[in-house]
Write a structure and sequence with these properties.
heterodimer, A: alpha/beta, Rossmann fold, seven-stranded mixed β-sheet, 46% helix, B: mainly alpha, ABC transporter involved in vitamin B12 uptake, BtuC, two-stranded antiparallel sheet, 15 helices, globular, SBP_2_dom (chain A), Peripla_BP_I (chain A)
């Protein structure tokens, strides 16, 4: 019997130790939770603004969180950052449920699935918590509004202008996309085709092919080589995907082809290919949005929703002081509302050195 | 009355109550109490209402633990259950969206689970030389693969008319409906494993399959029934999980099999078979769930929560060994 008693004691201490340990661990590793427990204890009345990223350890998400935290704290609120266990909607449900229990004032979520969070987010809204999304939206019923990094139109327009500018206004060009089912990429490509068809300015540009690299480096490389071989007069390859644009830029730079590359890419991956036209670099400039600004926009939305400046209805306006813009909420294509951050940000030889260390 | 082999042979168990309290299940009750008290002390929001509100998602996973315990008791394993949840949930949503009445959709989900379970069971029974880990690894990939093909490019489906799912996801007062179902199912599984022939047969197979076979236990039948039950309860999990998400996607149910196995093993059910009690699995499930909810409310990093659960799990497996070694050393010292 003694051994049973022993195991019982051991176990109780184990559980107690684990709990005590994690309490300490939580507050040292995560500044968010530390400040949360402090404010709970003192009941300082600070409002709590939560953000739920897609997953932990995603550098792009980290930048969004950084921007979000900066604005919330500058406005006297408390930012609660709660990472899901893995990049699934299931894990986000757990985290959001927990935030509802804690009684936060607002939740901003970068959703891993458009629909799966509906039940839990409706639950949150019914308890008076203000719900918005950033980066990747949930369906119209599950949110009050959405901080959209880039409207389809804005991205397509920027890419069309880039192709026009780099090619000199005429000639062959091709698109290197992700997979043929990728929602974002397909929307941008359709919009680009629409813009080019509607404006006679682009009449001399000839889209020869839309190739699919499936967001795999090897396949994107193969597809780029095939494009260069099949269309010797190709002037521009436009790749609206970070994997594709890096692969294409590498192939073009390595082979010394005259073709140029542009698209949507990560500055850190693209830095070695971006350069002035005569430098032998394959990419004159490319675009992406600024995740820090997106986090800031999301923070301003949360603040405005909580203090009642906006309700999330189309036509509401609010000021994002640090971004220097007064935003207006607009109707989104899915029937809900959204706030568009602005035109995508241009990375060129002048600013790439500064940005390549950021993300 | 120690026999020659050193084993105690007792026709009438003595000190029944003392034995019960000092068993692993008794320890689990103590741990559960410690967890509840500590979580309550740490977090002001750890109220009965909040804990029950956060629980349905975990309760759905508990449906998996029950038959998983049966399979583990036989020394087998099933790691395809997460994929069955995904496939069943996907088909359910497709059925609802195709305009079928909700009960029909439920039947389709249950049917999917039964068929998947039967496929697992049939392969394992027909090819006894294949380890169940490998068979169910194969079906894990196949079942999720089918769901992924059906879901197509978007990788996600939402039930357009979620009224049915909403209804079964409701609560009676503050207690979710699924809570009652888990308790009822748990009670049935406890009775089967302790009071019925089937439960004894499971243990016999897990202790020594050959002996069980020569003693007249229909090993293949018991195996097959267990895997079909596993499939059916995976479907049940899918139903109540869909009631929380109103949809399915390619990651639905990912990792559920490991959660279910962890609950069972922490409950003292040996993965090598022949050991453990159903009630232990149920208690440990509540320990893990209550702990996770408590830590979650303190905003403890999810990865840290996993770490703690992992430590608890290894501790639970090690403890019997350590105490056995200590008592063995003591005996040596005495003799």
């Amino acid at each position: 019997m003694k051994k049973k008693l022993l195991s019982l004691l051991l176990c109780a201490t184990l559980a107690a130790g684990a709990l005590a340990g994690c309490g300490g661990g939580g507050s040292t590793t995560d500044t968010g939770s530390k400040s949360s427990s402090e404010s709970k204890g003192g009941d300082s009345g600070k409002k709590q603004y939560a953000i739920v990223p897609k997953s932990a350890g995603n550098p792009y998400n980290e930048k969004e969180v950084e921007g979000f935290k900066a604005i919330i704290e500058a406005n006297g609120g408390e930012a609660v950052v709660n990472y899901p266990q893995d990049a699934t909607a299931d894990a986000q449900i757990t985290v959001i449920n927990s935030l509802i229990s804690q009684g936060v004032d607002s939740i901003a979520v970068a959703a891993n699935d458009e629909n799966a969070l509906q039940s839990v987010l409706e639950d949150a809204m019914s308890k008076g918590i203000k719900v918005s999304c950033l980066d990747s939206s949930v369906n119209a019923d599950s949110r009050q509004t959405f901080a959209n990094q880039a409207g389809v139109k804005e991205v397509a327009q920027a890419l069309c202008d880039a192709v026009y500018d780099i090619s000199g206004g005429s000639g062959d060009w091709a698109i290197l996309s992700a997979s043929s089912q990728a929602t974002n990429q397909n929307a941008w490509i359709e919009a680009m085709k629409g813009i080019m068809a509607d404006d006679s300015k682009y009449a001399d540009l000839n889209l020869v092919e839309v190739a699919y690299g499936d967001d795999e480096t090897q396949k994107s490389t193969d597809q780029t080589q095939a494009l260069l071989a099949n269309y010797p007069n190709l002037k521009v390859i436009c790749a609206p995907t970070t994997v594709g644009v890096a692969a294409a830029a590498k192939v073009v730079q390595d082979t010394g082809a005259t073709c140029r590359v542009t698209g949507l890419g990560l500055p850190s991956e693209m830095a070695e290919y971006i350069g002035k036209p005569d430098s032998g670099k394959s990419c004159p400039y490319m675009f992406l949005w600024n995740p820090i600004d997106l986090g800031k926009l999301s923070a301003y939305i949360s603040l405005a929703l909580v203090d009642g400046t906006i309700t999330g209805a189309a036509g509401d306006t609010f000021e994002a002081k640090e971004l220097g813009v007064t935003y207006t909420i607009t109707e989104a294509a899915d029937g809900g509302t959204e706030v568009i951050l602005g035109a995508p940000f241009e990375f060129n030889p002048d600013n790439i050195e500064e940005w390549k260390t950021v993300y | 009355m120690a026999g020659k082999s050193g084993r105690t042979i007792n026709a009438t168990p003595q000190n029944v109550w003392r034995k019960r309290i000092l068993s692993w299940e008794g320890v689990l009750i103590v741990i559960l109490a410690v967890v509840l008290v500590l979580c309550r002390a740490m977090s002001a929001t750890y109220t009965l209402e909040n804990v029950l509100r956060e629980m349905p998602k975990y309760l759905a996973e508990m449906f998996l633990m029950l038959p998983m315990a049966f399979i583990l008791m036989m020394g087998e394993i099933d790691i395809s259950v997460g994929s069955i949840v995904c496939l069943s949930g996907t088909l359910g949503c497709f059925a609802v969206n195709a305009g079928m009445p909700f009960p029909v959709a439920l039947l389709i989900m249950l049917g999917t689970g039964l068929i998947c379970g039967a496929i697992n069971g049939a392969i394992i029974v027909i090819f006894p030389e294949l380890p169940s880990m490998i068979v169910t690894l194969g079906t894990q990939i196949i079942f999720r693969g089918i769901a992924e093909i059906m879901l197509g490019g978007g990788g996600s489906i939402a039930a357009k008319n979620a009224d049915g799912f909403r209804a079964i996801g409701k609560s009676l007062g503050i207690v979710p409906i699924v809570f009652f179902l888990v308790i009822i199912s748990g009670a049935i599984f406890v009775i089967i494993s302790t009071k019925m022939k089937f439960g004894r047969e499971l243990m016999a197979i897990g202790s020594n399959r050959l002996t069980a076979f020569y003693s007249g236990v229909k090993v293949k039948k018991v195996l097959f029934i267990s895997y079909v039950t596993m499939g059916a309860f995976s479907a049940l999990c899918a139903i109540f999980f869909t009631a929380a998400t109103y949809g399915a996607n390619t990651t639905t149910g990912k990792g559920f099999e490991m959660d279910a196995i962890a609950m069972a093993v922490f409950g003292g059910i040996s993965s090598t078979g022949g050991k453990g009690k159903m009630i232990g699995g149920i208690l440990s499930a509540f320990v893990i769930v209550c702990l996770r909810i408590g830590l979650g409310q303190k905003n403890v990093n999810s990865q840290v929560i996993l770490l703690i659960i992992g430590i608890l799990l290894i501790g639970a497996v090690l403890l019997p060994n350590i105490s056995a070694r200590i008592s063995a050393n003591k005996k040596k010292a005495i003799s």
